[in-house]
Design brief:
By secondary structure, the protein is an all-alpha fold. It contains three helices and no strands. Helices cover about 40% and strands about 0% of the residues. α1 packs across α2 (about 40-50).
């Protein structure tokens, strides 16, 4: 594809979106573009390039707890003699 919408930040994301959209079409979703003699993957790529597919980045990931913070959160364990 020559053109990607500006909000797609990488070719990798473009491929992931196209794969997911193609899978939707293979499961029965109707294409948003009529392109004769094209496979679902090509149709999906054209749909995304023309910004016809809605998507977002999903929920924000949980913050990562650093190992030092994790150690501080643990309660001391009494030694058994």
């Amino acid at each position: 594809m020559d053109r990607m919408p500006e909000r797609i930040d990488s070719k990798f994301r473009f491929v992931l979106l196209a794969a997911e959209r193609a899978e939707q079409m293979l499961r029965g979703a109707r294409p948003k573009l009529e392109i004769p003699d094209k496979k679902a993957t090509r149709i999906a790529m054209h749909e995304i390039a023309n910004d016809l597919v809605e998507w977002d980045f999903g929920p924000a990931p949980e913050p990562v707890i650093e190992e030092e913070e994790l150690v501080e959160e643990l309660e001391p364990v009494e030694e058994i003699e």
